[in-house]
Amino acid sequence: MSSQPTPELAASGDASDARRLTEAVTRLRRALRASIRTDYPWETLPMAQVELLQVLAERSPARVSELATRQRLANSTVSGLVGQMITSGLVTRDVDPGERRAAAVALTDAGREQLAAWTRAHERRLDSALGALDDADRAAVRAALPALFRLVDHLNDDPS
Questions:
Q1: Backbone Cα Rg of the chain
Q2: Taking the mean position of all CA atoms in its chain, how far away is CA 127?
Q3: pLDDT tens digit string along 93-120?
Q4: Rounded to an integer, what distance in angstroms lies between the CA atom of residue 58 and that of residue 26?
Q5: What's the average model confidence in pLDDT over 12-22?
Q6: CA-to-CA distance for 104 and 135, rounded, in angstroms?
Q7: Residue 63, H or E segment
Q8: Of 1, 62, 109, 147, which is the most buried if we count CB atoms within 10 A?
Q9: Is residue 105 a contact partner of residue 56, using CB atoms and an 8 Å limit?
Q10: Residue 1 parent element (H or E)
């Protein structure tokens, strides 16, 4: 698959930065999802569960409502995902010590190990792809990282 903009974008010549970034991020995520199945064929963890593991790795334990807010998902959706992840041994759900009527979800050692393996597989895949780029492209990607992290911060701060 070409890394050039779609013909429609290339022909118009006036694609907005937001549209081009959306296309690049979408294609990058799709390529990573596809390649992870090649490099990590035994991996069956759905992306929604990976994202919850990532959130829990940053802050665990957390209430389902906190996870839902953070992921901008319905509580029922997160509760269903958590139930599947409990069955898989990736998380536990216990009484929240701060609020006895609430439950708190926490990563298990198996969840941490699964997330670490998933992360290592992605890092290997990206490291290989970055190695295939020329020096100028690698430098451009490296230089863009701080701005991309700031963009993420702005998106997380903007409720719309």
A1: 19
A2: 17
A3: 998 777 778 889 999 999 999 899 888 8
A4: 24
A5: 77
A6: 46
A7: strand 62-63
A8: 62
A9: yes
A10: none
